[in-house]
Write a structure and sequence with these properties.
This protein is mainly α. The protein is 46% helix and 0% strand.
Length: 67
């Protein structure tokens, strides 16, 4: 019985080690979806909001001070 358990354990470690083979990468054929493929609709840009963002950007520091 002990020999059976030892052989199972040794056989299991060889299987877990992979015997020199590389594991299959399940993400190797994946790519990022475009917004159209993901089903995202393009949102119309509000010209007033864009003008407000541009105006507010004048008052924001370009570089932050460190402590």
């Amino acid at each position: 019985m002990r020999l059976l358990v030892i052989s199972i354990l040794l056989g299991g470690t060889a299987a877990l080690g992979g015997c020199g083979s590389t594991p299959h990468d399940p993400y190797s054929d994946m790519r990022m979806l475009t917004p159209e493929e993901a089903g995202v609709t393009n949102k119309e840009q509000d010209p007033v909001q864009e003008a407000e963002k541009a105006f507010n950007a004048k008052f924001v520091r370009k570089e932050r001070r460190t402590r």
